[in-house]
Amino acid sequence: MSTVNPAIGTDAGQGHAEEHGHGHGHEHHGSFISTYVFSTDHKMIGKQFLITTLLMLMVGGALALGVRWQLAFRWEAMPFFGMLFKAEGGQISPEFYTMLVTMHASVMIFLVIIPILAGAFGNFLIPLMIGADDMAFPILNMLSYWFMWPAIFCFGASFFCAGYGAAGGWTTYPLLSALYEAAPGSGAAQTFWLFGLTFVGFSSMMGSINYMTTIINMRAPGMTLFRMPLTIWAMFITAILQSFALPVLTAAGFMLVSDRMLGTTFFIPGGIVVNDNDPTVGGGQTLLWQHLFWFYSHPAVYIMLLPAMGMVSDMLACMSRKPIFGYKPMVYSMAAIAGLGFIVWGHHMFTSGMNPALGMTFMVSTVMIALPSAVKVFNWIGTMWGGRLQFNTVMLNCIAFVSMFIVGGLSGIFMAAVPVDIYIHDTYFIVAHFHYVLFGATLFGCFGGIQFWFPKMYGRMMNEKLGKLHFFLTFIGFNGTFFPMHLLGVAGMPRRYADPYLHPYLEHLLPMNQFMTICAILMGCAQFILLFNFFYSRKFGPTCGRNPWNANGLEWTAPSPPGHGNFESVPICFRGPYEYSDPNHTEDFWLQTDQPVKKAGDNPPPSAAH
Amino acid sequence: MSHTPAKTSVKMGIPISRAKLGMWLFLGTEIMFFTAFIGTYIVCFFGSPGWPTDTHQTHINIAAGGINTFVLILSSYFVVVAHEAMGLRNFARARQFLIYTMVLAFVFLGIKSYEYNGKFTHNILPGKIAENDFQAMNNTVKAMQSAVDGQLDLLVAGSEKPHEKLVVLNKELSDAKTGDSDSPRNRQLRAWLGWNEEFARLRTEVSANKLSLKQVQDRLEVDFPKTVVVDTKTSVLKAADGRDLTHITGTVDNLEAFKAKQAYKVKVPTGEEVSIAPDNVASATLLAGVIDLGHQIHHPFVMPYGNLFASCYFLMTGFHAIHVLVGMTLFAVLLMQGRGLNEKWADFMENAGLYWHFVDLVWIFLFPLLYILPGLMSAA
Amino acid sequence: MTHEAAPHDTHGHADHGAHPHVNYFGIFIALCICTGLSILFDLFDVKSGAMKTVVVALVLSVACAKAMFVLTYFMHLKFEGNWKFIILLPTTILAIGLMFALAPDIGLHYYEPDVPQVKQTLPAASIDNQDDHAHGH
């Protein structure tokens, strides 16, 4: 295209241009800062997000291993990581344990899952898949990445705060989070944590407005709404969810911060005595926080899932060499999940003392979410059915996504029912459930996505053998870790206890916990294979052409990696993205930009008129 | 899915600019942001029996709120006229109306800070309001404690604990020669001791649950006069908080005498009467120094759910004010272009205007919700 | 492509002031009248509960009317396409829905709240004038 900048642009220009991570004082063409650090190019921002979140994934994983270590080998000095908390003698104290739980959840949710989906894949894929040259607001896009760093700093400061890090859980329920004296982690650490949350919120906010604007107004000619890949639909719906739900959490976060720092009393009832302090003065209600928090955080569950659903739909169709089964139902079911997602938040609060009338309402709406979810699952299975399945790493991860999502979805139905939930609430059953959805579904989807779009990002293929090894180790480790949690939960083992075996009825669960911890360590180590594969393949992987997977999307018509401005000329879209194995076409894929076979009387295709 | 060639215009999407679309989406998120605050306020209002609605108590100033509404509406009008002028390429006129808008924004913030100031002086602050008698008395005791300790720190320098300083102070008094006993320093020390004794008695009685709030209030009125400020310019005696102190400091006749530049006697907490000459600045200062304690102690009052009310009021109006500041920044960017303002800024102008109208819109709802409706609800 | 997209963009909003002229001053006057009305309502000394509801509803509808004036004319929504509904309707529904969803828990209580503020309304016990601060100077 005419505006390709030859200095950065073309294949040759970027073939050798490696990304050196952050703060690596390596001068590149004198524009290192503008190319790699303060880049406004959506692809670079996407890669920045990806690498940052992968590193954060390791941090969050390490935190989880601390939790698992304590549950399996309680009060024993933790090897290797024990060095980091020498003051404890390498031991994990109860306060430290709750802090680990809190920070694991916060890091994984706010610094890994949400940014890897929306930030990394969203940024990289949206303009490429809709045939745009960049995001609508590139500078806003850059800011959305750079607002991640204050967030990371704040969470880190919370972690290393004098005393203990924030330990109120990622849900930060008041009063634990509202009163400084409530717990060792309720002091400055909690304040830092809340600021971190606010920064993540700003980052997501800027991102989602950008995505919506881009998807609405920057599609390539011919890219009608119902020719958009499901990834784009998912990103679009996610952005809508985020932009309507997140402000409520931001506002609630400001209320909580001002409760802590300015003396307001939104969430602090009067007359509460904490740690021998004077009774609190105030008239607020703690339930208010729970409502406002879950008003965001339940839609956030879908924010953490929908993009992966979209990406898996694309990958499944490609690797099955079949059109996606039921394209429009897929779109409508995603929209339905999003819409219903706004009216189900109360199912997190069944045991909170919420008004029973609300409990009933939320139970019904929650069970209804099973319908669109089932539509999606059946459509994925229908897509694979009778296809020519390519059992490569991408496909394996996608199949893992679908099957783990089924397990997580089914256990979710248990908790949607109030009577059952009252029994299993705050047990390991719920831990199993959300790990099956967030790790089992979302992260496997991301692993597949990395393998699938890596060639587009770096122009090289990832190693297939290492990818499969990583997949199988992770899959085995994952199920070994989380499947027994269902059993623990039904046996009545509560979450967030540093030493559950104080209760005699849980003593016999120790061997099972030790097995789970060993699986978790296996799974943790397996992630180094992914990192190695990622960084190794970026440099030494075999180079590839534009369309290594023979896929249909617009992104595969751009060079790998795409230059500045993405496409040589404005791509024109003639069909939907899932025309695989079409009998009317010679190849088993049909790029969205391929001109249809001319028939007499056809109008000439539209030109971009440039 | 369709195999028909795209019969499409080149441009996909909706026929507005990206910037405007982004702005509208952003305003959608802003609506949700304020929804959280306004929703919280409304449900807390209904969920808190006895929510403070009396404007005398809450110091809600309906006139100020009404004027501010008018100010914002007028500024919105100016913005829309400025935008129209931009469209007609009359940039001088646009600039002129933007300046009007800026001025009105400042007026809005000025009135707002006047209102805030009223809240601050009457201690209508979140977390500071007593919601039952016990808290009110406790607040008084706490305020007196810090006032007494603070005064002691002024009298006896150093970082020792209060009880150690008390020993030092007593020693200084007992060491003083009889001739010095009326020196300003010693008078101050004795005045402080009087305060301290009075305070200790009050604290003991409050903690023993012997006093009702009414009794504490009475005692503050009678026995703990607020600071007497002798305004040497107007020769008027009053408390630091502006209260008329004639009932404590003497009769009206005495005050008249004071105004007539005659010697004047004032009763201080130690019980002694201090004579001051009205023109004598030094003795006026002395008087203020001797009894400069009470100004830190607010008149105790009880306002159930006052803290929640103040929380809502300050957070809602505060975030609105922050939005006003952001809007002003946007206009400032436009105004800084000076004569360079041209059609390239039309988009910016439109979006800044949209933002400003939204700020206006928020106030349109905040005004009845905060100022009008609570009073109406309490009327019956 | 940036440059190629630009002309469409400018085309998209080249219609500044293309919509019919609006008497903004008239709108402004209407808004002022509405503001005056809401203040007027405040001066009513409403006694009965039913009347109170009516006046509250009136004040709120005046506020909504003002909001509609600002949205329709000042923010030019009258002249925009149907996208305005797509952006604003879900937001409005969510905004109103949130309040209704909060109401059963926060606005109403299905139990007797046990808070100092409620206790305060009960008569204070055992506080009498035992010691009428009999201390002279």
Q: Any overview of this molecule?
A:
The complex is a heterotrimer of chains A (610), B (380) and C (137). By secondary structure, chain A is an all-alpha fold. Chain A has helices at 11-15, 32-37, 42-72, 94-130, 138-146, 148-159, 188-217, 230-261, 286-303, 306-320, 327-341, 356-384, 393-416, 418-424, 428-458, 464-490, 510-540. Chain A has 3 domains: 42-270 and 281-304, Cytochrome C Oxidase, Chain A; 343-356 and 389-543, Cytochrome c oxidase-like, subunit I domain (Cytochrome C Oxidase, Chain A), CATH 1.20.210.10; 545-610, no CATH class. In chain A, α13 packs antiparallel against α15 (428-458). Chain A is globular, with a radius of gyration of 24 Å. The N and C termini of chain A lie close together (10 Å). Chain B has 380 residues and is mainly alpha-helical. In chain B, strands 1-2 form a two-stranded antiparallel sheet. A two-stranded antiparallel ribbon of chain B has the order 3-4. In chain B, a hairpin with a 5-residue loop joins β3 (264-267) and β4 (273-276). The longest helix of chain B has 34 residues, at 346-379. Mean pLDDT of chain B is 77; it is low at 1-9, 225-264, 268-272 and 276-292. By secondary structure, chain C is mainly α. Chain C has 2 domains: 22-80; 82-137, no CATH class. Chain C has 5 helices and no strands. Chain C has helices spanning 2-12, 24-43, 49-74, 83-107, 116-120. The radius of gyration of chain C is 27 Å and the shape is flat. Chain C starts with a helix and ends in a 17-residue tail after the last helix. The model of chain C is unreliable at 1-17 and 122-137 (pLDDT under 50). Chains A and B meet through α7 and α8 of A and α1 and α12 of B.
